[in-house]
Write a structure and sequence with these properties.
- The protein contains 9 helices and 2 strands; from the N terminus they run ααβαααβαααα.
- With about 240 residues, the chain is mainly alpha-helical.
- The protein has a two-stranded antiparallel ribbon.
- The radius of gyration is 18 Å and the shape is globular.
- About 35% of the residues are buried.
- It is a multi-pass membrane protein.
- It is found in: Membrane.
- GO terms for molecular function: oxidoreductase activity, acting on the CH-CH group of donors.
Protein backbone atom coordinates (compact mmCIF):
# COMPACT_ATOMS: atom_id res chain seq x y z
CA UNK A 1 0.00 0.00 0.00
CA UNK A 2 1.29 3.43 -0.93
CA UNK A 3 2.31 5.34 2.20
CA UNK A 4 2.64 9.00 1.25
CA UNK A 5 3.81 10.01 4.72
CA UNK A 6 6.71 7.53 4.69
CA UNK A 7 7.71 8.51 1.16
CA UNK A 8 7.53 12.19 2.15
CA UNK A 9 9.85 11.64 5.12
CA UNK A 10 12.42 9.93 2.88
CA UNK A 11 12.22 12.76 0.33
CA UNK A 12 12.63 15.46 3.00
CA UNK A 13 15.65 13.70 4.50
CA UNK A 14 17.03 13.29 0.98
CA UNK A 15 16.77 17.03 0.37
CA UNK A 16 18.42 17.70 3.74
CA UNK A 17 21.48 15.71 2.62
CA UNK A 18 21.45 16.73 -1.05
CA UNK A 19 21.66 20.43 -0.11
CA UNK A 20 25.33 19.89 0.70
CA UNK A 21 26.04 18.80 -2.89
CA UNK A 22 24.60 21.94 -4.54
CA UNK A 23 28.05 23.47 -5.09
CA UNK A 24 29.33 20.22 -6.56
CA UNK A 25 26.34 19.86 -8.89
CA UNK A 26 26.41 23.57 -9.78
CA UNK A 27 22.69 24.08 -9.18
CA UNK A 28 21.55 27.28 -7.54
CA UNK A 29 19.64 30.53 -7.72
CA UNK A 30 20.16 34.16 -6.79
CA UNK A 31 23.86 35.01 -6.50
CA UNK A 32 24.61 31.29 -7.02
CA UNK A 33 22.58 31.14 -10.23
CA UNK A 34 23.49 28.10 -12.32
CA UNK A 35 21.43 25.47 -14.08
CA UNK A 36 21.43 22.66 -16.61
CA UNK A 37 18.12 22.92 -18.47
CA UNK A 38 18.60 26.59 -19.42
CA UNK A 39 14.95 27.21 -18.57
CA UNK A 40 14.07 29.77 -15.92
CA UNK A 41 10.97 31.34 -14.45
CA UNK A 42 10.42 34.96 -13.38
CA UNK A 43 11.27 35.17 -9.67
CA UNK A 44 7.77 36.13 -8.51
CA UNK A 45 6.17 33.22 -10.36
CA UNK A 46 8.89 30.83 -9.22
CA UNK A 47 8.47 31.76 -5.55
CA UNK A 48 4.69 31.45 -5.65
CA UNK A 49 4.80 28.09 -7.43
CA UNK A 50 7.26 26.39 -5.13
CA UNK A 51 5.84 27.71 -1.86
CA UNK A 52 2.12 27.38 -2.62
CA UNK A 53 1.75 23.59 -1.96
CA UNK A 54 1.93 24.44 1.76
CA UNK A 55 -1.19 26.60 1.53
CA UNK A 56 -2.90 24.16 -0.84
CA UNK A 57 -2.64 21.43 1.80
CA UNK A 58 -4.11 23.81 4.39
CA UNK A 59 -7.10 24.52 2.14
CA UNK A 60 -7.45 20.80 1.36
CA UNK A 61 -7.66 19.88 5.06
CA UNK A 62 -9.48 23.06 6.17
CA UNK A 63 -12.89 21.45 6.73
CA UNK A 64 -11.28 18.91 9.12
CA UNK A 65 -9.34 21.44 11.21
CA UNK A 66 -10.63 22.28 14.70
CA UNK A 67 -8.99 25.50 15.81
CA UNK A 68 -7.68 24.94 19.34
CA UNK A 69 -4.30 24.75 21.04
CA UNK A 70 -3.59 21.33 19.50
CA UNK A 71 -3.78 22.96 16.08
CA UNK A 72 -1.56 25.92 16.99
CA UNK A 73 1.41 24.59 14.94
CA UNK A 74 -0.82 24.67 11.85
CA UNK A 75 -1.62 28.34 12.50
CA UNK A 76 2.08 29.20 12.79
CA UNK A 77 2.90 27.18 9.68
CA UNK A 78 0.20 28.90 7.61
CA UNK A 79 1.18 32.35 8.93
CA UNK A 80 4.72 31.87 7.64
CA UNK A 81 3.62 30.63 4.24
CA UNK A 82 0.98 33.30 3.79
CA UNK A 83 3.89 35.72 3.91
CA UNK A 84 6.01 33.53 1.61
CA UNK A 85 3.33 32.85 -1.00
CA UNK A 86 1.44 36.14 -1.04
CA UNK A 87 3.42 39.02 0.49
CA UNK A 88 7.08 38.18 -0.17
CA UNK A 89 6.82 37.53 -3.94
CA UNK A 90 4.90 40.75 -4.52
CA UNK A 91 7.68 42.70 -2.83
CA UNK A 92 10.56 41.12 -4.75
CA UNK A 93 12.85 43.56 -6.48
CA UNK A 94 12.32 43.93 -10.25
CA UNK A 95 16.04 43.16 -10.49
CA UNK A 96 15.71 39.78 -8.76
CA UNK A 97 17.26 37.01 -10.81
CA UNK A 98 15.17 34.34 -12.56
CA UNK A 99 14.89 30.93 -10.93
CA UNK A 100 16.01 27.78 -12.79
CA UNK A 101 13.12 25.45 -13.60
CA UNK A 102 14.87 22.51 -11.91
CA UNK A 103 15.12 24.50 -8.67
CA UNK A 104 11.40 25.30 -8.84
CA UNK A 105 10.49 21.68 -9.58
CA UNK A 106 12.59 20.29 -6.74
CA UNK A 107 11.22 22.91 -4.32
CA UNK A 108 7.65 21.99 -5.29
CA UNK A 109 8.43 18.36 -4.47
CA UNK A 110 9.84 19.35 -1.07
CA UNK A 111 6.98 21.67 -0.10
CA UNK A 112 4.38 19.16 -1.29
CA UNK A 113 5.85 16.50 0.99
CA UNK A 114 6.61 18.75 3.94
CA UNK A 115 3.31 20.65 3.75
CA UNK A 116 1.41 17.36 3.86
CA UNK A 117 3.35 16.09 6.88
CA UNK A 118 3.10 19.32 8.88
CA UNK A 119 -0.64 19.74 8.34
CA UNK A 120 -1.68 16.08 8.59
CA UNK A 121 0.32 15.22 11.73
CA UNK A 122 -1.15 18.12 13.67
CA UNK A 123 -4.65 17.70 12.26
CA UNK A 124 -6.14 15.13 14.63
CA UNK A 125 -3.83 15.17 17.63
CA UNK A 126 -5.63 15.44 20.95
CA UNK A 127 -2.94 15.95 23.56
CA UNK A 128 -3.61 16.80 27.19
CA UNK A 129 -1.26 19.59 28.23
CA UNK A 130 0.46 20.06 31.59
CA UNK A 131 2.03 23.24 32.96
CA UNK A 132 5.42 22.40 31.43
CA UNK A 133 3.76 21.95 28.04
CA UNK A 134 2.16 25.39 28.20
CA UNK A 135 5.52 26.88 29.17
CA UNK A 136 7.22 25.13 26.24
CA UNK A 137 4.53 26.36 23.86
CA UNK A 138 4.81 29.94 25.13
CA UNK A 139 8.61 29.95 24.72
CA UNK A 140 8.20 28.40 21.29
CA UNK A 141 5.75 31.08 20.17
CA UNK A 142 8.09 33.86 21.31
CA UNK A 143 11.03 32.25 19.49
CA UNK A 144 8.91 31.76 16.37
CA UNK A 145 7.83 35.42 16.38
CA UNK A 146 11.41 36.61 16.89
CA UNK A 147 12.67 34.38 14.08
CA UNK A 148 9.95 35.39 11.64
CA UNK A 149 10.30 39.12 12.31
CA UNK A 150 14.09 38.84 11.99
CA UNK A 151 13.69 36.93 8.74
CA UNK A 152 11.39 39.62 7.34
CA UNK A 153 13.66 42.45 8.51
CA UNK A 154 16.70 40.80 6.91
CA UNK A 155 14.74 40.27 3.67
CA UNK A 156 13.94 43.99 3.72
CA UNK A 157 17.63 44.82 4.20
CA UNK A 158 18.57 42.71 1.18
CA UNK A 159 15.78 44.29 -0.86
CA UNK A 160 16.95 47.79 0.03
CA UNK A 161 20.40 47.00 -1.40
CA UNK A 162 18.87 46.29 -4.80
CA UNK A 163 18.47 49.82 -6.06
CA UNK A 164 16.71 50.51 -9.30
CA UNK A 165 18.83 49.82 -12.41
CA UNK A 166 21.62 48.38 -10.33
CA UNK A 167 22.78 44.75 -10.36
CA UNK A 168 25.72 45.49 -8.09
CA UNK A 169 25.97 43.36 -4.95
CA UNK A 170 26.68 45.07 -1.64
CA UNK A 171 27.53 43.90 1.86
CA UNK A 172 24.36 43.75 3.99
CA UNK A 173 24.41 45.35 7.45
CA UNK A 174 21.93 45.46 10.30
CA UNK A 175 19.90 43.01 12.37
CA UNK A 176 21.25 39.43 12.20
CA UNK A 177 23.58 40.41 9.35
CA UNK A 178 25.86 41.90 11.98
CA UNK A 179 26.49 38.35 13.20
CA UNK A 180 26.21 36.13 10.11
CA UNK A 181 26.36 36.41 6.33
CA UNK A 182 22.86 34.96 5.88
CA UNK A 183 20.80 36.73 8.52
CA UNK A 184 17.57 35.92 6.70
CA UNK A 185 18.39 32.21 6.84
CA UNK A 186 19.31 32.38 10.52
CA UNK A 187 15.98 34.09 11.20
CA UNK A 188 14.14 31.27 9.46
CA UNK A 189 16.10 28.59 11.33
CA UNK A 190 15.21 30.28 14.63
CA UNK A 191 11.60 30.52 13.49
CA UNK A 192 11.27 26.80 12.80
CA UNK A 193 13.03 25.91 16.05
CA UNK A 194 10.27 27.84 17.82
CA UNK A 195 7.73 25.96 15.70
CA UNK A 196 9.27 22.66 16.80
CA UNK A 197 8.93 23.66 20.45
CA UNK A 198 5.27 24.52 19.94
CA UNK A 199 4.70 21.29 18.01
CA UNK A 200 6.48 18.95 20.39
CA UNK A 201 6.24 16.25 17.70
CA UNK A 202 8.61 14.40 15.40
CA UNK A 203 7.17 16.22 12.38
CA UNK A 204 8.08 19.60 13.85
CA UNK A 205 11.62 18.41 14.50
CA UNK A 206 11.87 17.00 10.97
CA UNK A 207 11.04 20.40 9.51
CA UNK A 208 13.45 22.20 11.82
CA UNK A 209 16.23 19.71 10.99
CA UNK A 210 15.67 19.97 7.24
CA UNK A 211 15.60 23.78 7.42
CA UNK A 212 18.80 23.82 9.47
CA UNK A 213 20.57 21.49 7.04
CA UNK A 214 19.38 23.05 3.77
CA UNK A 215 19.87 26.68 4.78
CA UNK A 216 23.21 26.03 6.53
CA UNK A 217 24.60 24.49 3.34
CA UNK A 218 23.49 27.48 1.29
CA UNK A 219 24.68 29.95 3.95
CA UNK A 220 28.19 28.48 3.93
CA UNK A 221 28.33 28.88 0.14
CA UNK A 222 27.07 32.44 0.47
CA UNK A 223 29.68 33.22 3.13
CA UNK A 224 32.47 32.00 0.84
CA UNK A 225 31.01 34.03 -2.03
CA UNK A 226 31.00 37.24 0.05
CA UNK A 227 34.56 36.71 1.29
CA UNK A 228 35.83 36.12 -2.25
CA UNK A 229 34.00 39.13 -3.68
CA UNK A 230 34.71 41.74 -1.00
CA UNK A 231 38.20 42.37 0.38
CA UNK A 232 36.70 44.46 3.19
CA UNK A 233 34.17 41.82 4.27
CA UNK A 234 33.74 41.81 8.11
CA UNK A 235 36.21 39.26 9.41
CA UNK A 236 34.28 38.44 12.59
CA UNK A 237 31.05 37.68 10.72
CA UNK A 238 30.21 33.96 10.57
CA UNK A 239 28.23 32.04 7.94
CA UNK A 240 25.08 30.94 9.80
CA UNK A 241 25.67 30.27 13.53
CA UNK A 242 26.83 33.38 15.42
CA UNK A 243 30.39 33.12 16.81
CA UNK A 244 30.67 29.45 15.75
CA UNK A 245 30.09 28.63 12.07
Amino acid sequence: MFDFQFISIIIILGFSLAAWTADLLKIGYGKHLSHYMKLTLPPKIGWILYECPNLIWFVYFLSDIRFDINRLPILLFVTHYFNRVIIYPLRLSPLARPIPIEVVASAILFTTCNGYIQISTHLNRDLQFQFNDYLRILVGILIFIYGMTSNIKCDNILRSLKKENSNEYKIPHGNLFELVSSGHYLGEIIEWFGYFLVSGQWSGFLFFFSTLSILSARAISTHKWYKNKFDNYPKKRKAIIPFIL
